């Protein structure tokens, strides 16, 4: 089992640090529907952590609790060693948590570069008033933000489309632009909601490589939901398995693969 309090070393030699986020006994209800029942798990620094489970298991709801979009009726969210008080999603984003969405949420009429720049908004320090009063300061911040956006664009190999309106891009590239926008916020924790959904094999391979490269190059901790089991098992260091709102498995891909509850609930059935 991988539960050493100071972290662990992965099979491929990457050092995983201490706990960066901890969900403690989370219960989330929508009226009479209990989407999440008493779930606890942690996410460690530098880790790629997957949340899997059949349709309706509560995975997106859990991601929405992490990102502050939903407030659970019970339980505690701990981030960087402190209990997180109730916060609005933009405040959570300011704390270094960025996300992508299951259904692409980009500004279709805007260029790739401008979309990626919107990822900097949560990090901007200069308000409108000081922008008016201190033009120089605002310009310096704009330049710094643009530099970060360009760096991310280079890293994800989308320079050639930086001026192209998003509406003209194929699906796989839109997903990559969404990843770029999330990365532009320089997050500590990156949440990916089905990053490969709807992609062909080649696009999935590209996306997997970029996720691994982001983790490796920037040390970004990543939590992701994904249905493609091959992808999940290849990418992830540890996997949480949910079923009907409950946690039925938690461990390395090998541990999860051989867990009978998981096999019964999920792995024996095709969800593509
Ligand atoms: N906003 C909501 N209002 C009411 N019920 C909801 C809401 N969001 C989710 N649910 C319910 O909570 C349960 C968990 O849904 P959730 O979308 O979190 O599952 P999921 O594992 O992400 O599913 P999928 O793989 O299909 O995306 C489902 O029964 C769903 O109908």
TrEMBL record:
Pfam families from the UniProt entry: ABC_tran, BCA_ABC_TP_C
Keyword ATP-binding: yes
Protein name, as recorded: ABC transporter ATP-binding protein
Domain ABC transporter intervals: 21-269
PANTHER family: ABC TRANSPORTER ATP-BINDING PROTEIN, CONSERVED COMPONENT OF ABC TRANSPORTER FOR NATURAL AMINO ACIDS-RELATED
GO molecular function: ATP binding
Matches recorded under InterPro entries: AAA+_ATPase, ABC_AA/LPS_Transport, ABC_transporter-like_ATP-bd, BCA_ABC_TP_C, P-loop_NTPase
Domain of life: Bacteria
Alphabetic keyword roster: ATP-binding, Nucleotide-binding, Transport
Source species: Sedimentitalea todarodis
């Amino acid at each position: 089992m991988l539960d050493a309090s100071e972290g662990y070393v992965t099979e491929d030699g990457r050092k995983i640090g201490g706990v960066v986020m901890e969900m403690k006994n989370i219960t989330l209800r929508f009226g009479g529907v209990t989407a999440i029942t008493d779930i606890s798990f942690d996410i460690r620094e530098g880790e790629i952590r997957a949340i899997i489970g059949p349709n309706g298991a509560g995975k997106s709801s859990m991601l929405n609790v992490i990102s502050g979009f939903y407030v659970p009726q019970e339980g505690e969210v701990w981030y960087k060693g402190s209990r997180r008080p109730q916060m609005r999603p933009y405040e959570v984003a300011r704390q270094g948590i960025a996300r992508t969405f299951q259904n692409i949420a980009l500004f279709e009429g805007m260029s790739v570069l401008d979309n990626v720049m919107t990822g900097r908004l949560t990090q901007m320090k200069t308000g409108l008033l000081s922008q008016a009063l201190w033009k120089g300061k605002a310009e310096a911040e704009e330049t710094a933000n643009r530099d970060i956006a360009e760096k991310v664009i280079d890293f994800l190999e989308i320079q050639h489309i930086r001026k192209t309106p998003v509406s003209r891009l194929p699906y796989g590239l839109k997903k990559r632009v969404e990843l770029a926008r999330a990365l532009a916020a320089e997050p500590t924790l990156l949440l990916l909601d089905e990053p490969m959904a709807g992609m062909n094999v080649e696009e999935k391979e590209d996306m997997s490589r970029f996720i691994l490269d982001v983790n490796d190059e920037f040390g970004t901790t990543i939590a992701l939901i994904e249905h493609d089991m091959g992808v999940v098992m290849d990418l992830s260091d540890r996997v949480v398995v949910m079923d009907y709102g409950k946690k039925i498995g938690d461990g390395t891909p090998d541990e999860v693969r051989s867990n009978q509850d998981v096999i019964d609930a999920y792995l024996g059935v095709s969800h593509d």
